[in-house]
Amino acid sequence: YFLIWMVMTGLDVFTGIGKCFFNVNGSSTIAWKGIFKHMFHVVTVVAFCVIFIAIGIDSLAGMFILFEIGVYGISIVENYVSCDLPTPKWLKKFFEDKVKEGEGEQ
To answer: What pTM was computed for the model?
Structure first.
């Protein structure tokens, strides 16, 4: 699972950079926020996995990595949709609705 998680992390970084270029609203603030987010995720996954494996609950470490893979999967799709690349209408509408919900809560 760890290798899949690393690939998903790389894809999320790549699609996040693409999102910046396609939307032309990239800034160093957004870049640093993304870098710190990824650093936090890496440190968290490594720390929790080491702890879980050390106390003998390897399956919990695997579940934690699977959760992180899911989070990155959603982020990758969201970045892809934000780039205005060919996307099914229902998927685009779903993420646009989620962005509107998020903006309404702030």
So the answer is: 0.76
